[in-house]
């Protein structure tokens, strides 16, 4: 049932008000499914699976290619929605739609080969065949920071593999969830292959136990991820978790400092800093620390914020006032514990969940800027004696999502990236967002499993061995 249909049913429904973070005014009131309605959607998804799993890889690829076209067609409308739901600047929203279209195209183009049967010689007969068979209904739960991308990266992969999915978006983004379903169905995806669940997080967690849910994929905080892993384990459901990050960018003494400064500013303030793979900690070798810090602070002071529909602003607001307040509290606590605030660090006196680009140094262990994730435009600078100390500090964090290295010696940087950094992704002399043809995911408390890049398609398949005698 769509939001419009839910609004007109006879029963009294639970509703949720969501707010435009730029104005703090109510943006939408959403109507929730009851748990029984959500279970009926899972049943319907299971029914749809019986025919979807029989479609050929070519048929699926054709629909997914069409989805890419429609995402491009609708990118301006989708960007407007995201600006109002969570404050994303319009240009960034359109870029996100383009990125999603690229994921669809890559999946359509490479999925047929990636999921094709493989043959092996076996000692006991003619041959072995490895076949990647879909498993059934996958429950997706995704957050608000990339309202389109987070949903599309998982759902396109599971749909290409022949699964169906029920999707619980963050409550603030139910409108985007519905827009995605509309696009998928206009492209030719049969009803029931992708369905939105308008439920709260607690109900979604309970649905993991449903007999037809075969797997769960979640992006969000480590604390909720831990809970989902626990419930999934109890019911023996496979899960993919993309959790937090506190990515360290190491600036070695032989780095191009101007490039490092420019990239590390961009990597910190993009999406108002609300990105799991944002550059969050900056670990700088002592001989270049002062130069990097002074240039970095000067550049952060130039970052503007304001109405996300005005293209002159570098950043919009944060997604919600309570999230902005939490970030500010983390900054204040870090300062109380010894950090120095070099710029920003004050809540502006205006409506909206705004927060300025902020830089901290002299950060002490035991403070939020050292130990936790800062999900907003706050940079944490650390001075270290040498490469070894930089690697030790980068790896000391409980998260292991991404990271970066700046050095003019590319071979050295690649060695450190490959052999030393305990993360799932590393940027060398740059800051790349997720790429359709590269896997995405982390280690340690950043979770497990991989999205796109050919790997996401194989997260929820039954890798079946056939032994031909
Ligand atoms: O928050 C994690 C997803 C990152 C998406 C992006 O940077 O485009």
From TrEMBL:
Residues 14-465 form the Aldehyde dehydrogenase domain. The keyword Oxidoreductase applies. Keywords: NADP, Oxidoreductase. It comes from the Bacteria. It holds the Pfam family Aldedh. GO terms for molecular function: aldehyde dehydrogenase [NAD(P)+] activity; succinate-semialdehyde dehydrogenase (NAD+) activity. InterPro entries: Ald_DH/histidinol_DH, Ald_DH_C, Ald_DH_CS_CYS, Ald_DH_N, Aldehyde_DH_dom, ALDH_GabD1-like, GABD/Sad-like. CDD domains: ALDH_SSADH1_GabD1 (cd07100). Coiled coil: none annotated. Belongs to the aldehyde dehydrogenase family. This is Succinate-semialdehyde dehydrogenase / glutarate-semialdehyde dehydrogenase. It comes from Methylophaga sulfidovorans.
């Amino acid at each position: 049932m769509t939001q419009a249909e839910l609004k007109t049913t006879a029963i009294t429904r639970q509703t949720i008000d969501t707010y435009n973070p730029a104005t703090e005014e109510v943006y939408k009131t959403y109507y929730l499914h009851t748990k029984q309605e959500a279970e009926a959607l899972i049943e319907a998804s299971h029914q749809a699976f019986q025919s979807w799993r029989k479609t050929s890889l070519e048929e699926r690829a054709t629909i997914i290619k069409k989805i890419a076209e429609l995402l491009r067609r609708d990118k301006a409308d989708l960007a407007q929605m995201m600006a109002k739901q969570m404050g994303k600047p319009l240009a960034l929203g359109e870029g996100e739609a383009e990125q999603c279209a690229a994921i669809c195209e890559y999946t359509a183009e490479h999925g047929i080969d990636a999921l094709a049967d493989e043959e092996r010689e076996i000692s006991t007969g003619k041959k072995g065949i490895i076949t990647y068979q879909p498993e059934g209904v996958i429950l997706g739960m995704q957050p608000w920071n990339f309202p389109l991308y987070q949903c599309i990266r998982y759902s396109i992969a599971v749909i290409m593999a022949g699964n169906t999915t029920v999707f619980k978006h963050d409550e603030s983004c139910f409108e985007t969830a519905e827009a995605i379903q509309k696009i998928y169905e206009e492209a030719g995806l049969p009803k029931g292959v992708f369905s939105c669940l308008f439920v709260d997080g607690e109900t979604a967690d309970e649905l993991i136990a449903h007999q037809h849910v075969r797997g769960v994929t979640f992006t969000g905080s480590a604390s909720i991820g831990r809970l989902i892993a626990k419930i999934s384990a109890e019911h023996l459901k496979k899960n993919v978790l993309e959790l937090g990050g506190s990515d360290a960018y190491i600036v070695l003494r032989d780095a191009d400092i101007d490039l490092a400064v420019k990239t590390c500013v961009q990597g910190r303030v993009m999406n108002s800093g609300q990105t799991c793979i944002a550059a969050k900690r900056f670990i700088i070798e002592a001989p270049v620390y002062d130069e990097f810090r002074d240039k970095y602070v000067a550049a952060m002071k130039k970052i503007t914020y304001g109405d996300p529909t005005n293209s002159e602003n570098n950043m919009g607001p944060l997604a919600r006032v309570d999230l902005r307040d939490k970030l500010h509290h983390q900054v204040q606590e870090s300062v109380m514990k010894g950090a120095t605030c070099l710029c920003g660090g004050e809540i502006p006196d205006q409506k909206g969940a705004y927060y300025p680009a902020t830089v901290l140094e002299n950060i002490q262990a035991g403070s939020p800027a050292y130990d936790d994730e800062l999900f907003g435009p706050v940079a944490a600078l650390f001075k270290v004696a040498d490469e070894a100390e930089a690697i030790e500090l980068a790896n000391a964090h409980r998260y292991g999502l991404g990271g970066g290295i700046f050095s003019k010696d590319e071979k050295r940087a690649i060695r450190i990236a490959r052999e030393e950094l305990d993360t799932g992704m590393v940027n060398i002399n740059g800051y790349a967002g997720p790429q359709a043809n590269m896997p995405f995911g982390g280690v340690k408390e950043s979770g497990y499993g991989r999205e796109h890049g050919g790997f996401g398609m194989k997260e929820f398949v039954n890798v079946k061995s056939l032994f031909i005698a």
